[in-house]
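Q: I'm teaching a short session on how sequence maps to structure, and I want students to see two examples side by side rather than one. Could you give me a first protein with its sequence written out and its structure tokens following it? Keep the formatting plain so it prints cleanly on a handout.
A: Of course. Example one:
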Amino acid sequence: MKQSPLEKIFWSIALPGFGQLLNGKIVKGLIFITAEFMINVKSNLNQVIIYSFRGEMQTAIAETNYLWLMFYPCVYMFAIWDAYRDAGGARSPYSFLPFVFSAYFGTIGLIYSSTLRIFGALIGPVFLPIIFLCIGTFVGLAIVSIIKQMRKVAGT
């Protein structure tokens, strides 16, 4: 039974490496799962998520190991893109751009998560990177759309 590239994206969102396992790329999948697990443990991400969902942003910020968590957006988004590409979803030569901009913006969100306030409230090291990641996705999609329009006008 053939699975869609979109399904691989959702499995990779659940845990980086699952999409690769579904694509039959066992070694690559295990590498992504190991990297995700190591970054998760070293950055205290699960505890930070719990504090963030409880609204304890100062505690979440204090518990975050930013040196390790800085790896997470890039590894996470690369694993998602890789599973999508291996499943045949990357038909456009620019399909990587939304994933790249998501990783970049997510990392920027993480950098500013301990100081940036929105409507007077700290958003923290979990929610601000997610917000920025979504913004990065839309920026990447917009750039892909602009490139396609420019190529269409140029006739290539």
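Q: Perfect. Now a second example for contrast.
A: Example two:
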Amino acid sequence: MSVWQRERLIEIWPMLQKYVDGVKNKKIPNPATASYDTIAAAQGDPLIIAKLQFFFAISRTFSPFLLKFQTDEPALQSKPGSRIGELSVLTFRKECTKGLAAMVKKVQEKSPLKFPVVRHIACLDPTNMSRDPEWCIGKMKSVVQRFLEDKQLAGGVQL
């Protein structure tokens, strides 16, 4: 998706919402297509614009890499008389893959998601609260317990 298409999607989103509302109110016939169903489902998500912006940021970051390396064409072609053979190309690709895997591993090591408290505070998400309040209560108890153990919270708390 080009930059223009991404910007255009955000620009026309309010019109798409009106269209879906028109179908729901039976002012417009339901097209009964997978595309319409996707847009109708997305309309129900209050964070859709933020999610789209996040997706666009990720795609802007990785598109150059994917365009260059995610292709059926060989990334390195040996020219007649050159010393680069297929084995060298495969070795290079394997080293690139190892490098990317090492980067992802480092990001995971540095990520705050490795800490249980960070994962447990997902209970503060309003969608989780409404979807599964018992799960949220359990997670909040775990957070409070951890804060008490680490002496970051004084006294007891009733949940």
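Q: What should students look for in example two?
A: Point them to this: The mean pLDDT is 82. Also worth mentioning: The chain has three domains: 1-70, 72-110, 112-159.
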